[in-house]
Specification:
This protein has about 220 residues and is of the alpha+beta class. The chain has one domain: Alpha-Beta Complex (hypothetical protein yedk fold). Helix content is about 20%, strand content about 35%. Strands 3, 4, 7, 8, 11, 12, 13 and 14 form an eight-stranded mixed beta sheet that branches. It is globular, with a radius of gyration of 17 Å.
């Protein structure tokens, strides 16, 4: 899955150029600050209506958690996702996404259950930006206020990332925005194509206590 991603300062400068070009009054630079994006945070997305700010995670129908990912293989079969995926596809811009190795390790590199897992930043080599495929919908909070939320599509991990996790986001090229948001045939193709090769950079961080507590 994709449980956290990054928008760096350098990438944010490039992103603002794209957002300003696409903006139709739904996004202002002050609405968002670069850094790590967690589930339930608001972040920029790009759709048919231009650039906007939306909350990461559809509200869960059973409890107070959120649904941050949808499987590309089955999303069109799910009643919760089908209409939004057909009608409100979006692009989620980032510098890269984080993934945590399933193995974990203790001091000296020995595997140990219960130890903090190794955190990796996954990027596209030679690129400042990594664009993830997603879709959005409109919901109401407990007070009846409307808000937009998005989820990120995931697919089977390719060889460049499968050593640490079995899933990865569905990734788009910079020139595929219009096709992704407007062309249903292209959408079907993207949902089933393999992801691009990624580079992995080992980082350091605390365990995922924050967002694991709000996921299903």
């Amino acid at each position: 899955m994709c449980g956290r991603y990054l928008i760096e300062d350098e990438a944010y400068a490039d992103l603002l150029l794209i957002l300003n070009e696409l903006n139709k009054g739904n996004f202002a630079p002050g609405d968002f600050a670069p850094g790590e994006v967690f589930p339930t945070h608001v972040a920029p997305v790009i759709g048919n209506e231009g650039a906007a700010i939306a909350k990461w995670g559809f509200p869960h129908w059973k409890n107070s958690s959120v649904i941050i990912n949808a499987r590309a293989e089955t999303a069109l079969d799910k009643s919760m996702f089908r209409k939004a995926l057909r009608e409100r596809r979006c692009v989620v811009p980032s510098s890269g996404f984080y993934e945590w190795s399933r193995s974990g390790s203790s001091e000296g590199g020995r595997k140990s259950k219960g130890k903090p897992k190794d955190k990796y930043l996954c990027r596209q080599p030679g690129e400042h930006m990594l664009y993830m495929a997603g879709f959005s919908n409109t919901f109401h909070d407990a007070l009846g206020n409307k808000y937009d939320a998005f989820t990120i599509l995931t697919t089977v991990a390719n060889e460049s990332i499968s050593s640490i996790h079995d899933r990865m986001p569905v990734i788009l090229a910079a020139d595929e925005f219009d096709q992704w948001t407007q062309d249903d045939g292209f959408m079907e193709y993207v949902l089933h194509r393999p992801g691009p090769e990624l580079s992995l950079t080992l980082t350091s961080d605390k365990p995922l206590e924050y967002y694991e507590s709000i996921l299903d």
